[in-house]
Amino acid sequence: MRGRAGPPALEAVPDRLRAHMVTGAFVVSGVTMLCIAVFTLIGWNVMLTRSTSQTAAVKTVENLAHLASHDAEAHVAAVDAFLRGLIAALPREGEARLTQAQFDVLSSLAGAVDRLGSVVVFDTAGRPLQTVAADDATSKSPAREVAAAPWFVEALKAPDRIAIGAPVAGLFDGASVLPVALAVPGPSGVRAVVMAELRVDAFEQSLAGVDLGSSGVVWLLWNDETIVFRLPSLDRTGDTGLSVAGSANAQYYVGQTQGTYRGRSAIDGIERLYAFRALPGVPLILAVGIGVEDFADWQRQATVSLAMAGVLCSVMIGIALLLRREISRRNATEQELWLRSETDPLTGLANRRRFERVIDVEMRRARRNRMPTSLLMIDVDRFKLTNDRFGHASGDRVLRIVAAELTTAIRRPADLVARVGGDEFAVLLPETEAGGAERVAESARRCIEAGGFPEAGAVTVTIGIATFAATAVGSPSDLIAAADRALYAAKEAGRNRTGHWTGDDL
User: Fold this and answer.
1) Residue 113 and residue 134: Cα distance in Å, rounded?
2) Domain 90-202: which CATH class?
3) What pLDDT was estimated at residue 134?
4) What's the rounded mean pLDDT across residues 388-405?
């Protein structure tokens, strides 16, 4: 019986692999992988640059906040020292009033300190006792009563430290000031409160030279919610007194002494990286912000790098696709030439060249796998007579009929039908024993005979069969020779029949 259908001939495997490679699929895949690697590398570099840039930005804004807060602390400390000196000059007993000489000295001193506005001495009920105005030995007008002012109340409650109030207009020139107050101690407790106006423009002047970039900002907050000053300002007056209570950014300041955060301003809508520091001992917080765009060079660099990589990869992939198309065309041409070189042009069957190559591969596989191989050699009966009598066109038709019937008789991909001579055909049957080969041969012979040929009647063939046993040792030429002997023996026996070689040659 015939063996089970085996895989396609081994000779086809290298062809399939070669065809896969030369179609250009590897070229496009390689270029695609290269582009993915390039984008991965750029992405990693972008993330590294982003991290480095953000770290540098945080460090920069922290340093600016530290520098600015120290400057603001210096202003507060100077006013604190002035008030303590004033308290030391007041008489220890009686009403807290300066002598004329002391008044003249402090008036000159107040004028010399450009950060100071008016200086007022209040009694414990908040009534002004004495006012010192810069460069003026006599007060221009009495100070307002301040009994309900938060800074006055705070100074009475905590006589050992200064109290700072919300920004207000100065007593005489209307400029924005911060009231800074300190209690005057007496034998039986607080006996007066001294207040000095700390000019807001002093902060602005000292911080105006800080380079904050194109969209940077510096501001001083009182009690976490009221702007003392803001540079640059929207109203060109420092935005003094503007409340930021309830804004998204204000939440970062509550209960914190320092920190950094990224947020969008409720005032101008610009997103910034902020650093803030609380001034020690007073309800003031100084914040510095630099615009996100000012430290976003990495984004521009990333955009340029990705755009360039995208263009380059697009060009490379385009070239790869064109190359694949050209290689596919060349491969198709090569495959067509290869098929022509191994195909019989008349019948479309394998020619002798391919037959000899395939039989060598299949017999080596049969020896390796210990499987039988059978070969049919077919000769068209009296073909020369048909050619001479009816012409070559009719002879060619007979050959095509025989080729078609032989192709129909085989069922498995591994079987091969070839035209090996003028009117001689071969059918190679891998993994097929003698019985299976005889059935294929008889089926093909009967189908050819039944097909008919109008000019000359039935077309008949004679078939010689040889089988390479699983344990036999022999070459392809031995198998071909044995099949030929079986064919000639069948012809001598009367044609239109099959013969099987049973000698011991194989």
Assistant:
1) 9
2) alpha beta
3) 55
4) 87
